[in-house]
Amino acid sequence: MTARDLSFAHVFRPAARPGPPPVLLLHGTGGDETDLLPLGEAVAPGAALLSPRGQVLERGAPRFFRRLAEGVFDEDDVRRRAGDLARFIAEARETYGIGAPVALGYSNGANIAAAVLLLHPESLAGAALLRPMAVLSDPPQANLRGKPVLMLSGAADPIAGPDSVAALEVALTASGAEVTREILLASHGLTRDDLAAATAWFARRAADAPSSS
C-alpha cells in the first residue's frame, strides 16, 4: 500500500527526532489537511504528523461526520465515519511505519477523535480534545485504561455547552481514560492558553513514551 492508496486525502510528515509519539491532526469544520499542521508542530515538536481531510461536506465545508443542525448529530454517521477513520489510521500505520498516534483534534475534529476512542479504542494512544462535546447519546463502555486524554473547554463557548462536555468526560472516565480537563477563559476559538496547555501535555506524553516512533 502506498500513500496514494490510503482512504483519506492527507498530509504525512515524518518524525524529525526520536521520542515523541506520532500525532493525528483532526481539523474543525471548514478546515483541511493543512489546517492544524502549524499547531501540531508547535505543541509536539519533532513528532510525526498525520493529518487527514474530513470526507463529509457541509455546504462545501469539510467535516468528519454529518450533523442535522448545530449541536444535533447524525449518530449513525458518526459511528460509520469513526470506523472509516480507524481504518485509515491502520492503513497509515502500515504505510508509514508509525505507532498508534495521539489525536489532536479541534471542534469537529475533537468530536470524531472522541468517537474513535470510544468505538475503536485500539486505534489511538490518547487524545487532546480542543473544544469537544458529546456526540453519542449512548456511548459504549470502551477499554481506555491508562490512555491519557486532555479536554480543553472554553468557559464562554456557545457551541460546546458544559453539560455536553461533562457527559463526554464521564463517558471517557468510565471507560478508564486518564482524563485531564481544563476550562479556559475562552469562547469556541483557540487561544494562547490552549497552546500552552496542549504543549505541556504533549511534552509529558513524549517523556512517557521515549521509544515511540
Automatic annotation (TrEMBL):
- Entry keyword Transmembrane: no
Report domain AB hydrolase-1 positions. Answer: 81-136
GO MF annotation: an example = hydrolase activity
Entry superkingdom: Bacteria
Q: Does the record bear Hydrolase in its keywords? A: yes
Q: Which Pfam families match?
A: Abhydrolase_1 (PF00561)
For this UniProt record, the keywords arranged alphabetically read as follows:
Hydrolase
Q: What is this protein called?
A: Hydrolase
Look up and give the organism this protein is from. Methylopila jiangsuensis
